[in-house]
Amino acid sequence: MVSSMVTAGAVMGVIGVLFSIGLFYAARAFHVEEDERVELLTNMLPGANCGACGFSGCSGLAQALAAGRAQPTQCSVANSEQLAKIAEFLGVEAGPVERQVARVMCGGTSAKATQLAGYVGLEDCRAAHLIASGPKGCTYGCLGLGTCVQECPFDAMVLGPDGLPVVDESVCTGCGICVQVCPRGIMQLVSPEAPLTVRCVSPMAGKQVRAVCQAGCIACKICERVCDQDAIHVIDNLARVNEELCNGCGACVEKCPTHCLELTDGQVRVLEAV
Amino acid sequence: MRRRRMPGGVRTGEPPGPLGPILSLADPKRLILACAQPGHQLNPLVKKRERVVGGQRLAEPNGEGFPIYAPCAGTVTDVAPALSSTGDFVLAIFLENDGSGETAPALPGWDDPTDPTPEAIRLRALEAGIPDVARGGIALARSLAPTTPIQTVVLNGCTTEPLVQAERVLLHHEWETVLFGFRAAIRAIGAPEAIVALSVADRPLVGTLSQSLTERDAITIEILPDRYPQGLERYLLAALRGVDLPVGEDPATVGFAVFDVTTMHALGRALRDGQPFTHRVVTVAGDGVARPGNYRVPLGMPLGALMEAAGRQGTIRQLVWGGPLSGTAVASEEIGVCANTRAVLAYQQPVSFEVPTTDCIRCGRCIDVCPERLSPIYLARYAEHKRWDEAEAEGALLCSSCGACSYVCPTGRPLVQSIQLARYEILRQREAERASQPKEVAVP
User: Fold this and answer.
1) Where are the alpha helices (DSSP H) in B42-200?
2) What is the ipTM of this complex?
């Protein structure tokens, strides 16, 4: 009884020793030189794996950083502290970090924008856009199927009850995924401090915009006339704001006949009501 | 060269024998003539409130393109952007018919297609404003002056899709005009060989056509199976001559020139009768119209007016631009008929995805009918889960959107739409990658 236990133990022990010797040589033979900084850098990055930097996730960017092929600021998700730490670790200048948030540049809610037809098909804005530019009267307006909301890696967006997406600017990291997936180019990255937003992207003339949407920019130029800072101009049928000159006085917002201008008061918009 | 049968496809179920007549319409009250052609916009020659007569030149190309003509006499009410079938707004001429029927004098014609010189044929194709419908609407004059040597010219008479008969009726009732144009096209290109490709359903035509062909013509008639999408150039050339035309390439790259029936009919009319291209035959079908059939429609006729003319009945809830398999729904009746409008289908109930989308039952019918031998269900599934790389590896970019898979799917899944989405996304990502090439910034 005892001897069989000893034999079994001895056999297992010998097998174990043999395998460990084998593994030892295998580890030597197949050893890969790896920059140990990559792992450290991967841990320093936010770990969202959103891919907004253009590399395959955080480890991809870490490899590029370690190899000197990328700048720390290419990560739009990390805050300035994290970036400073990474820059210090790499021994490079972090450079100025400008926080950006995504904003919805369309005010065509389901009540204000004309819907030409119904849509039956894939619940994806890109798919709807491919069918005769979607069912909306305005071919530039938000389709409201929420592809940006689905694709947001940080859950910073929801689809509002009025059919337009809403961005929680306290959560938004400015990664720009929504900008990429929107087939209409309605999502735009701006500084959260930007006081004034033009919620329309249609380059159509006023008459055509009026025909399909009550909230679009009709290029009437009233905003130009009331602005005493010379900060807003209508170019190609669309009001455009010079953010450096705009002081957020709100004179244009009051006068805008279609209310396509929106004042942010320099406050970060947080989702509460929705 | 071994012929290759197209794999898959769906039977069109066209009964052999004569087709109904080409129905004519009273000229509509209003016309919306788009001034956009692939790659550029035309310069309008008329202004608001100007009076024009039928056959008058309305807009001219600046560069490569072709002019457009007024289908009827009337007054220009506006020159402004109008909705197109793709959903874009393009500059258009709005014409109000005054009913006078006044027309501009026709250009001189030729009695025989071999009379005009190749140069004269190309010039007339340009002057008559004829698009090459099969080439996405570029000027036919360009297709008639190929830059690579062309061995064979093909008349594509088997663009059959269920319900769509616009091209077949032209072949049946006005084959002389089509053949006139085709002979002229062969002459302009100077190819040694020519083929008229017909579908099995049009076998009765063979006798009529071959009687009028002479030794001098060097035209052979080929019969292809009654399957959709046999008429797509890639499958057409494989079936005729075993030639492998790569996806997305022009037939000219493999020494072929393929023309569709409408284009050849327009060329025949322009050369023989001196008439510009202002009308085309459109199949109108569906339960939304009381008198379905093949109508000769002036270009620019709004779809709504066409519905009235064909006897609108009930509430039309879905309007399809093109055939039932490859067409797309349009959102407005205020779109003018274009050169590529082969059919307009009107339905009182939306016919696509009528069945609530259930899970795939894995019957494999979509795989059976795919002429490209793809697996639509896997492509659609990758698209659904946004796995674009895998969709590309499965061949999403090879899909020609013929619609056979969606047509046969018993669970009514939007297969083509998913594949189109995958293709859109793959191409967009490629574009984005190209634009951001210097993404890897060197650290100083």
Assistant:
1) 118-127, 140-143, 166-173, 175-189
2) 0.86
Q: Distance between CA atoms of B243 and B258, rounded to whole angstroms?
A: 13
Q: How far apart are CA B366 and CA B415, in angstroms?
A: 9
For B118-273, CATH gives 3.40.50.11540
Query: B166: pLDDT confidence band, cut at 50, 70 and 90?
Result: very high
pLDDT score of A274? 42
The residue of chain B nearest to residue A126, with distances taken between CA atoms, is B421
A126 lies within 8 A of chain B by CB: yes
Instruction: Place domain A37-90 in its CATH homologous superfamily.
Output: Electron transport complex subunit B, putative Fe-S cluster (1.10.15.40)
Q: Tokens for B367?
A: 């795989």
Q: Where are the domains of chain B?
A: 27-106+276-347, 118-273, 365-435
CATH architecture of A101-263: 2-Layer Sandwich (3.30)
Domain spans in chain A, listed from the N-terminal domain onward: 37-90, 101-263
pLDDT for A271 beyond 80: no
pLDDT tens, position by position, B2-32: 677 788 888 877 666 568 899 998 889 999 9
Least CB-CB distance to A120: which of B80, B352, B436? B352
**B142 CB neighbour count, 10 Å cutoff:** 18
Tell me the nearest-neighbour CA distance from B140 into chain A, angstroms: 26
Are the C-beta atoms of residues B164 and B232 closer than 8 Å to each other? no
Give residue-wise pLDDT tens across range B202-238.
888 899 899 888 877 889 999 998 888 999 999 999 9
What is the C-alpha separation between A127 and B424, in angstroms, rounded?
Answer: 9
Residue range B67-84, pLDDT digits in tens: 999 999 999 999 998 988
Task: Kindly report whether the peptide bond that precedes residue B229 is cis, defined as omega within 30 degrees of 0.
Answer: yes
Question: Given this chain, do its domains B27-106+276-347 and B118-273 carry the same CATH topology?
Answer: no
Measured CA to CA, the distance from residue B233 to residue B185 in angstroms comes to 18
Give the rounded percent of residues in chain B with a pLDDT score beyond 90.
66
What's CA A12's distance to the chain center, in Å? Answer: 56
Portion 405-444 of B in contact with A at CB < 8 A:
414, 417-418, 420-421, 424-425, 428, 432, 436, 439-443
Q: Which of A122, A131, A135 sits opposite B328 (nearest CB)?
A: A131
The pTM assigned to this predicted structure is 0.85
Shortest Cα distance from A7 to chain B (angstroms)? 54
Show which of residues 159-178 on chain A sit within 8 Å of chain B, judged by CB atoms.
none
Q: Give me the pLDDT at residue B3, please.
A: 73
Q: Does A56 touch chain B (CB under 8 A)?
A: no
Q: Cα dihedral sign for B163, B164, B166, B167?
A: negative
Q: Does domain B27-106+276-347 have CATH number 3.100.10.10?
A: no
Of the candidates B415, B423, B358, which has an alpha carbon nearest to the alpha carbon of residue A126?
A: B423
Residue B178 makes CB contacts below 8 A (sequence gap 6+) with B155, B170, B171, B261, B264, B265, B268
User: Which residue is it, tokens 């009381």?
Assistant: B290
pLDDT in tens, B326-372: 888 888 899 999 999 999 999 998 766 555 567 889 999 999 999 99
